[in-house]
């Protein structure tokens, strides 16, 4: 049975070592602390809380003074020791924050509590919910874990901020309202029980009184002729556990350094010799209180263990799956880092490709550019204006110079066509740019959709930058090729087209073709008549239309070849070469994770370790077997 309290002691210490002391806010990690039963001391300032604790321990070790002395919870774990040969073992105290340092001098323990309080609460006189753990190993104690809390108070003193009153109340409440805490409600007998701070709060958090133990202190200080039998016999305020009265050392005893052992003896005498209380004397006093609490705590622990075990198991499952989503930490050597980086790049590349190849949106935007935007842009070109009669006349006349053309205005045709083809460069370049923007968007989108990358904002940014740089190079290539396709059209005209031209000038005879038509054509046209100019204009327009049809096909091929295919094939090639040359430190920087995520993983990992350890500890005790 002893081992059950020992088990909870170990679990509580592990909790504090790993930052689990309950009271965490939303999205917090599962807490083991809150499920562990413990005895919490509750009472108003100067009601005698510290004195009760000290007489349970049988030692004088808690800080004293006026004002709010206890400003952090003190978890006091009492371990009963026995030496091998049965002789009484050495007695010592140990703090969890200073392991392996054994205190045998209780004045030093008190000093350490004061220093450790200040260390966390700072130089001001604030309160903190982070507990101090003190273990006392002694043959004179019972196995018990007790928690001393700051006293409930009405006024701040000593320059303590006013807010301290509500802060303490909130902190104390957070401890006593947990269904697993056993409340040791301390009330002084020389004060009306109806005004007891301890009973007031205990009643709020434990209305049925099933986990509240009423302790009445200062019985020796009651006015002559009055007694506390109404309280002690449960008539004033009924609790499910019987009230226990105690007599602690008075301030004078403390000043005189009366030792705890003689104080206990005097307490026994007080009850046995008192005419009012002698019939209760076997159920009164600090020693009795300590034994009862220890027994009760064991019983509670035993009943809670199955619940604790199932809580631990489900918390372990939850944390493990959370850690899976957060991703495991990456090893520190360059090989593992490089491997991880390449894996992450591949994951990104996969998402990006599935945008282009279908499965995700994006690929169809490239096709739209080819299928709709390019033809529309070509259509919008101002060929009408370029081939107006006036402009045709001007260009043909300039090309002829002093010598009018004899058969057909060869030079005029060329100049008209060449200057029209220049206009096609605009749409060609626009397609290239448009596809570039689509691809850039897809990179951004793919970066966001690559869940694995979310952990690594630096790497994310570098991949995005490298991919965008690669796209820019593809765009430059593509632009060169697309404008070259346009320029090629200008460097060699399709002779065939002109050979096959129908006669249009003089004649509404579109059926007449071939040599006859050409001759007729040539002979039939007068220089610079409106008719002939109109014919020239419409011939050039037809030729340009044919070129546009060609380009509608060939520009998408060029763009797909230089931009889309390259993006699929070698988007991150430059990045791979670059990363390959970096050392472990630089790679580590790339794998710098989002700090909030890193700390969450760390915290979750620690909590997981704690829970696993707790599970093993509980299994090892083999409770109830
Ligand atoms: P806390 O503020 O609740 O921790 O109260 P303390 O334990 O520090 O006690 C406050 C004062 O009351 C101290 O001077 C104690 O000596 C005194 N005191 C506590 N309990 C008793 C008691 O049962 N009898 C007498 N005579 N004095 C007590
Ligand atoms: Mg105190």
UniProtKB/TrEMBL annotation:
Q: Which residues form the Dynamin-type G domain?
A: 33-306
Q: What is its main location?
A: cytoplasm
Q: Which InterPro entries match?
A: Dynamin, Dynamin_GTPase, Dynamin_GTPase_CS, Dynamin_N, Dynamin_stalk, G_DYNAMIN_dom, GED, GED_dom
Under SUPFAM superfamilies, the record lists: P-loop containing nucleoside triphosphate hydrolases
* Entries under Pfam families matching the protein: Dynamin_M, Dynamin_N, GED
Task: Provide the GED domain boundaries.
Answer: 533-625
Q: Which domain of life is it from?
A: Eukaryota
Q: Is Cell membrane among the key words of this record? A: no
Cellular component, GO, one term: cytoplasm
Q: Which SMART domains match?
A: DYNc, GED
Location(s) in or outside the cell? Cytoplasm
Listed A to Z, the keywords are:
Cytoplasm, GTP-binding, Hydrolase, Nucleotide-binding
The entry lists its GO molecular-function terms as: GTP binding; GTPase activity; microtubule binding
Regarding protein family, the annotation reads: Belongs to the TRAFAC class dynamin-like GTPase superfamily. Dynamin/Fzo/YdjA family.
What protein am I looking at? Answer: Dynamin family protein
State the species of origin: Klebsormidium nitens (Green alga)
């Amino acid at each position: 049975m002893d081992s059950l309290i020992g088990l909870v002691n170990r679990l509580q210490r592990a909790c504090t070592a790993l930052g689990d002391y309950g009271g965490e806010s939303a999205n917090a990690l599962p807490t083991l602390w809150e499920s562990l039963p413990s005895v919490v001391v509750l009472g108003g300032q100067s009601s005698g809380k510290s004195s009760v604790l000290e007489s349970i321990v049988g030692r004088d070790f808690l800080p004293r003074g006026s004002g709010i002395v206890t400003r952090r919870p003190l978890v006091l774990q009492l371990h009963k020791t026995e030496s091998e040969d049965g002789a009484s073992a050495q007695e010592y105290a140990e703090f969890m924050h200073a392991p392996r340092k054994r205190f045998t001098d209780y004045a030093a323990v008190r000093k350490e509590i004061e220093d450790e309080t200040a260390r966390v609460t700072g130089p001001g006189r604030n309160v903190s919910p982070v507990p101090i753990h003190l273990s006392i190993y002694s043959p004179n104690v019972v196995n018990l874990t007790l928690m001393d809390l700051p006293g409930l108070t009405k006024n701040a003193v000593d320059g303590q901020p006013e807010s301290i009153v509500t802060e303490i109340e909130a902190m104390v409440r957070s401890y006593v309202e947990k269904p697993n805490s056993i409340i040791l409600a301390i009330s002084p007998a020389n004060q009306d029980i109806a005004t007891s701070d301890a009973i007031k709060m205990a009643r709020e958090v434990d209305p049925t009184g099933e986990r509240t133990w009423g302790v009445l202190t200062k019985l020796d200080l009651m006015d002559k002729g009055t007694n506390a039998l109404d309280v002690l016999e449960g008539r004033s305020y009924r609790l499910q556990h019987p009230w226990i009265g105690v007599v602690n050392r008075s301030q004078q005893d403390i000043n005189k350094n009366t030792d705890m052992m003689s104080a206990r003896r005097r307490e026994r005498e007080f009850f046995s010799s008192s005419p009012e209380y002698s019939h209760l004397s076997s159920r009164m006093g600090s020693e009795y209180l300590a034994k009862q609490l220890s027994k009760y705590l064991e019983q509670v622990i035993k009943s809670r263990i199955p619940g604790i075990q199932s809580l631990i198991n489900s918390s372990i499952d939850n944390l493990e799956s959370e850690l899976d989503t957060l991703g495991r930490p990456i090893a520190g050597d360059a090989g593992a880092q490089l491997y991880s980086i390449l894996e992450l790049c591949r994951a990104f590349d996969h998402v990006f490709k599935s945008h282009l190849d279908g499965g995700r949106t994006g690929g169809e935007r490239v096709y739209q550019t080819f299928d709709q935007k390019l033809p529309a842009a070509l259509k919008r070109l101002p060929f009408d204006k370029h081939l107006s009669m006036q402009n045709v006349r001007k260009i043909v006349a300039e090309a002829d110079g002093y010598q009018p053309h004899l058969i057909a205005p060869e030079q005029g045709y060329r100049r008209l066509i060449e200057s029209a083809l220049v206009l096609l460069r605009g749409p060609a370049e626009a397609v290239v740019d448009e596809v570039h923007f689509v691809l850039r968007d897809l990179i951004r989108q793919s970066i966001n959709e690559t869940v694995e990358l979310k952990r690594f904002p630096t790497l994310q940014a570098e991949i995005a930058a490298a991919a965008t740089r690669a796209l820019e190079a593809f765009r430059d290539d593509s632009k060169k090729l697309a404008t070259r396709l346009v320029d090629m059209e200008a460097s060699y005209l399709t002779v065939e087209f002109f050979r096959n031209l129908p006669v249009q000038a003089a004649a509404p005879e579109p059926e007449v073709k071939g040599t006859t038509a050409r001759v007729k054509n040539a002979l039939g046209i007068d220089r610079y008549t409106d008719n002939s100019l109109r014919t020239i204009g419409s011939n050039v327009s037809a030729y340009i239309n044919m070129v546009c049809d060609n380009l509608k096909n060939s520009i998408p091929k060029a763009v797909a070849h230089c931009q889309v295919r390259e993006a699929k094939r070698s988007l991150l090639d430059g990045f791979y070469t670059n990363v390959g040359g970096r050392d472990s430190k630089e790679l580590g920087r790339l794998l710098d994770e989002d700090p909030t995520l890193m700390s969450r993983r760390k915290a979750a990992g620690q909590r997981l370790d704690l829970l696993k350890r707790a599970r093993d500890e509980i299994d090892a005790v083999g409770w109830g077997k």
